[in-house]
Amino acid sequence: MRVLSAESVPIRSSEDVVLARQLVRKKAVALGFGLVDQTKFVTAASELARNTLDYGGGGTARVELVENQSRSGIRVVFEDHGPGIPNIELALTEGYTSGNGMGLGLSGAKKLSHEFEIWSQPGEGTRVSILRWK
Ligand SMILES: Nc1ncnc2c1ncn2[C@@H]1O[C@H](COP(=O)(O)OP(=O)(O)OP(=O)(O)O)[C@@H](O)[C@H]1O
Ligand SMILES: [Mg+2]
After folding, report:
1. Overall pTM surpassing 0.70 (yes/no)
2. Ligand 2 centroid vs 105 CA: distance in angstroms?
3. Average pLDDT of the residues of the chain
4. Ligand 1 mean position to 106 CA, how many Å?
């Protein structure tokens, strides 16, 4: 896979979450995603941006245009240096929340993406990557 372009934005506030969403939407439109696919991926990105802010204490989102031999796509990588996730499997369980959420953000983001990767280390932080092909 080749990364054709990358743009990083900070996630420090609710306004930044909105800006990150808008950037993902813009890239999805530019790549020719239909409205349904745009909405799926923007929703996934929005959930992860929210987690980065609420649990990670803020971080960054890197929005990349990627391609492989046959397809183009968008990858978004969220990174924070917050407390990390002690049990990733549990965090991915639908309905599990350590706070007051519905516990649907991570599992939802995974379902709405074609590729999903999560790395987290307690005391170091969390990185979650989602990719959707055109
Ligand atoms: N970046 C992160 N840093 C630390 N913990 C995280 C991070 N993202 C998710 N988590 C943990 O994973 C749990 C599940 O996340 P998920 O997004 O699925 O649910 P939620 O945020 O609690 O609720 P919802 O997203 O439905 O409002 C969170 O409650 C939190 O404990
Ligand atoms: Mg969440």
Report:
1. yes
2. 4
3. 98
4. 7
